[in-house]
Structure formats: C-alpha cells, structure tokens
Amino acid sequence: MVAPEQIAADNAAMKPSILEIEDLVVEFHQGNKVVRAANHVSLTIRQGETVGIVGESGSGKSVLCRSILRLLPSPPSFVKSGRITFAGRDLLSLPETEMQEIRGADIAMVFQNPMNALNPVWPIGDQITEGERVHRGLGTRAARTRAVELLKRVGIPSPEMRVDEYPHQWSGGMVQRAVIAMAIAGGPKLILADEPTTALDVTIQDQILALLMDLQAATGTTLILVSHDMAVVAETCDRVAVMYAGRIMELAPTADVFAHPRHPYSLGLLRSIPRIDGKGQRLEPIPGQPPSLSELPAGCPFMPRCSFASPACGTSDVPLREVAKGHFSACIKAEEIAAVAL
Amino acid sequence: MNLLSYIVSRLLQMIPVVIGVSLVAFLAIHLVPGDPVQLMMHGRATPETLQAAHAKLGLDQPLLVQYWNFIRNAATGSLGTSIIQNADVGKIVGERLLPTVLLLVTSAVFAILIALPLSIIAARRSDQLADHVIRLLGIIGFAMPPFWVGIILMLFFGIYLDWFPISGYGRSFGDRMYHLVLPSLTIALFLAPILIQSLRAAILDVMTAEYITVARAKGLGPWRVLIKHALRNALMPVTTILAVNIGWLLSGAVVVEYLFSFPGLGSLLVRAVGQRDYPVIQGLSLVFAILVLFVNLLADLSYMLIDRRVLKA
C-alpha cells in the first residue's frame, strides 16, 4: 500500500514548476573576505506546494529568499553564478524596473520581525495597499476599502476602525497579520515567508501559521516557508530542504525526512528536538560549530561535525543526488544513514 | 497622551527654563566690572549726580531687589528703560524683533530648500561622484565664515549683477523680502552644509532598516522608497539639529546683520553690550531665551507631525 504522503508527493510532482533555482552562488564581499552565503543551491518549486527551508542561523536560508526577489544590497552581495527562473522568466537578468513589477505582484515576502517590518510613520492601511496603488493605480478611497477587506481577511477585528492606526499601536501578532495582508494584497503566485513566526509568542506562532496555511489553501499560492524550527516545518510543508553552510543537504517530502532522514545533518537536527511522545528522552546536540562561510573546507562542509565521516568526504564537493524516489541527499553515505533508526 | 496635553506639557516645561535664563542673564551682566552710569555720563559726573542716577535706575538697591523688580516688570510686559537711549526697552526690542525673526525664518527656509534636494541626491548616489561633489561643496560652504560669504554675495549679486539690495530693510512687505534675500542666503549657505551632512547620514541610516527592504519587496521604485519611506524617518534627527542651530544663529546673525546694516536684535545687542545698557541687555537676554524656547517648541511640535510615536511617551 502506498502511503498517503507518497500520493500527495506524486501529485505535487506532476504539477508544473513555478520557480527553478539552478546552481545559485551568492557571495558577500567584506573587505578582503568573501563570505559564500549560498553555495551551488539548486531547488525546484512546483505550483501550489509548500516547501520548507530549515537550517540554523547563518545557513543561507534568508539569503536564498532575498536573492529570489533580488533584495540583497549589491555591494556587498554578488550573485556569482546560477539562474533563478520564475514562471519562465530569468529573474537575475531582468532589468530592475521589470523586477519591481514582479515584487509584490507575483512574488511577495513575509518578514521575520513584524515590529521592524512596517514603517513607524505611516498608517498601517496605507502601507498594506501601497503596492496596489503604485502598480495598479488604485485610488485613495478604493485603497482604504481594500485595506479594510485585507485586514478582515487576515483576522483583524473591526478593521474599519483600525485601518488608520500606526504600527506602534498594535501588538506583534497583529502587525504580523498586517504584514501578511500586505503580502497577499497583490495576489502573488509565490509567497516567501522568512521565519514568519520566530519573533512571536508560541501561542501566536500557531495562529500565524494557521493563517498562512488557510490563505494558501484558499488561493492556491505557492509558499516557501523558511524556519529554523523543524516542528514548524513538520506541521505545514509538503517538502523540506535542509540547508547547512549555504548548501542544500537534503531535499525530500516532509514525511520522508522525518521518518528516514538520509543526511547526517538532518538526523542530528531531528535528534536534537524533544519528542512529544517522550520516546528517546535524551536529546543529542550536534557537536561543534558550523564552519565559517568565508573559509569553507573542501568537500562536505558538515564533515568536521559528522559522526559518519570518512576520508572520502573531504576530498571533493558532494553534490545533491536522488537517493530514493523524490528524496535527494548530499551525503556519500546516504544509503547507510537511511538504515539508522532515529 | 493626546495632542493638547502634549502641547501644554511642552509649554509648562518652558517656564522654569525662562526663569533660569533670566536669572543667569541678570547676574552675569552685574558681575561684569564697569558702571553704566559712569559710562553714560562719560566719566564727568559729580558724585551727587551719579548717586541720583543710580537711585533713579534702582541700581543702588540690593541685587535680589533689582532682580525681583526686573521679573515683576517683565511679567507685566515692561522691560524697563534704556539707560542710554532713555526709551522703553520693550519698544526698542519690539521694533527690532520682527526683522530678526523674519531673517531667521527666511534663512531656515533657504537652508532647507538647498539642503533637502542635495542631501537626497547625495544619499541616493552615496559614494558616487554626485555625493562627493555635494559633500565637498558642503565642506567649503561650512568653512567659509559668514561675513566673507556675505561680502562675496554683496559684490556679485548686489554690485556686479545688481539684482538685490545690499543694505537696509525696506518699507513694504515685498520690499522687505527683497532686502532679506542676500542676508538670508548668507546665513543659509552656512546652515545648509550642516543640514546636508546630517540629513544624508540620517537617510543612509534609515535605509538599512527592515521596513525599507519591506517597501522594496512591495515593488516600489528606489525614489519612492527614499522619499516616502526613508526621508520622513530621517527628518527626526535633522529637525533637532535645525532647531539647535536656529537658536545658535540668533547670536550668529549678529555679524550678518551688521554687514547688511540690518536693523535686527543682533546689532542692538552688540551696541547695548558696548554701552553697558543693562536694561536693554536684560530685555534682549529674555527675548533671546524665549525665541530659542519657541524654536524648540516648534521642533517638538514637528516631531509630533513626523512620527506619532512621540505622543505615546
């Protein structure tokens, strides 16, 4: 019998892709140092799916998101190589003015810290509809009605009364709803949610995640959810990409990653989170520190911390390869890891 | 906190400062050696007339009593009588107040008109040619003393091109504005570089904020992001700098007023100090203090317009 997750994954696999990232390398130049924040990242996102990107701080998740929208300031950042294709258009070679048409309208972003995401000196409603006013020539009166409608959609109570308020008058959770309203305003085909719940209280986190999933279900938008929290991804995503030191280490349907991780880093991440059923009580932290992105070692960047490491790991780059159907891993011992029980 | 209580609280805060400033001004002048009556009589007075003059002006009374009289009279609008001119200080100061205030307002407006576009361009093109040129011009403008700039402007716009009058104040409003152009420009050329530097720095600082990235992620163009999202936030620190400098310019305008034979408070102050005309100096100190406080009040009120968060505190 085929598992329902497998069917879902197969269905997703048949959908056309909306975003293709091929061999993306992003570097930051800081004085004499070159920090490689995204290192040969390839990722294909299909229409309507939810893909989680997990990894610890500094693993390149945010850089990846911002590269898609070309929001990174250059200098210091440079796209060294690679292609990002969105709905058939090569984003990295588009002129800036065409990129502006895509931002907000086709690809929108939800940011990590709601309290910094809105401009303190403008009313919330004004900021929510600004993109539509600029891109679609929405009038002032229509924009206000639209702002109320969007705020209602994201669950703000009595939006007519609150639309003209300022960000400092709202709580963090409410502002994050407003930021989400701003993101869905243009009816985007793809939403990049960069740690949308990290800055919020745990109870609010669930509400915001539920809201995102609800909106996605209603509109069929594609969602990329960046998080450092495996639990958040487990609840929400169809597929997961595990990032480490600017690379994708493992890419697979969520259920597969959680049941049978095929990369020692994913295995380490899963062993370091507490389980609600109390099995495997002892938490195992991953020893050591992530490598400096300006002095990446040859071969697998996880090798110094890896308990499965062998001399072969350090000789050459380990590319992402399909080790099972729809399951990609950047480990030469992927098959061996799969056999290890969690 | 609402609008009204914010304004009232700012007004109440001004009271102790006014008292403090008047006390300092009153004492400082009395501690300076030199007898105003002697000076007024050109040293030829007999001891009897000196004493009579002292008594008439109340200078023979204890300091505390003199100060009390000064405050009491000031509260009723009377600032005493000028020793030298033998006229009401309130009237002398009053007729020179408006020209100086007008000069400061037009100078500030000119400075803002120069600084706003230049700092926006400098920030937009930071570390590029336009930015370097603007900053260099700013440094040059700031390094040149106002009296020298004033003379250059007089020579070029006043005499060579003969566009603007180089001295006096004029009679009708239009004529006065016409007379104000060169002196205001002189002050503005000194003030604008300060504003350009601080506004450019403030804009670049704000541009690193997350909400700027959010604005860009909405698909806004770089100019809209800069003007709508960065500029307004950057105006907060610059408003403070402008207010401080306008207060400082009250005394700084003295040289410019002299140069352009402008009948303002600054030239009155210089003369009063030279003649040790106590009542005029005291009256002017009080007026200056109140002007500075008023400018700061305006700055406080503009914070409120720029950013609603000040009402929260």
Would you kindly provide a written description of the structure presented here, covering whatever features stand out?
- The complex is a heterodimer of chains A (342) and B (313).
- Chain A has 342 residues and is of the alpha/beta class.
- In chain A, 35% of the residues lie in helices and 23% in strands.
- In chain A, strand 7 (190-194), helix 10 (202-219) and strand 8 form a beta-alpha-beta unit.
- The longest helix of chain A is centred in the middle third of the chain and has 18 residues, at 202-219.
- Chain A is globular.
- Chain B has 313 residues and is mostly helical.
- Chain B is 78% helix and 0% strand.
- The model of chain B has no long low-confidence stretch (mean pLDDT 83).
- The chains are: A alpha/beta (342), B mainly alpha (313).
- Chain A binds chain B through residues 66, 69, 71, 97, 100-105, 108-109, 111, 113, 116-122, 130-131, 134-135, 166, 168, 179, 182, 186, and chain B through 209-211, 213-221, 224, 228-229, 232-233, 306-309, 312.
Write a concise synopsis of the structure shown.
The complex is a heterodimer of chains A (342) and B (313). Chain A is an alpha/beta fold and 342 residues long.
